[in-house]
Amino acid sequence: MNTSVSILTEIPETLHESLQGYLDTHPDWDHDRVFSAALSLFLLQNGKNNTPEALDSCRVAARVYLETLFQSNT
User: Fold this and answer.
1) What is the pTM of this model?
2) Handedness of CA 61, 63, 64, 66 (dihedral sign)
3) Quick check: 68 and 1 in contact, CB under 8 A?
4) Is 31 in a helix, a strand, or coil?
5) Distances (CA, A) of 21 to 29, 38, 58, 72
6) Higher pLDDT, residue 21 or 71
7) For the chain, what is the radius of gyration of the CA atoms?
8) Residue 8 and residue 29: Cα distance in Å, rounded?
9) CA 22 → CA 17, 25, 34, distances in Å?
10) FRET label pair with 11: which of 31, 39, 52, 72, CA 20 to 30 Å apart?
């Protein structure tokens, strides 16, 4: 994950409150880390195309997911 892109999005207030509650109790996580993990997992679970490009994209999503999940902020 060398390059980052900023994304501005709106989410339901109740989801934001739930996210904030999680972040308050898990200081190693931040908004960016949660969204990277969630988006990459979504792409992994919903990638259905077996073209070479889709398989490459799946590998990238898997790498991002695992790096995000296991990164250490210490």
Assistant:
1) 0.79
2) positive
3) yes
4) helix
5) 12, 16, 30, 20
6) 21
7) 14
8) 19
9) 9, 5, 10
10) 72
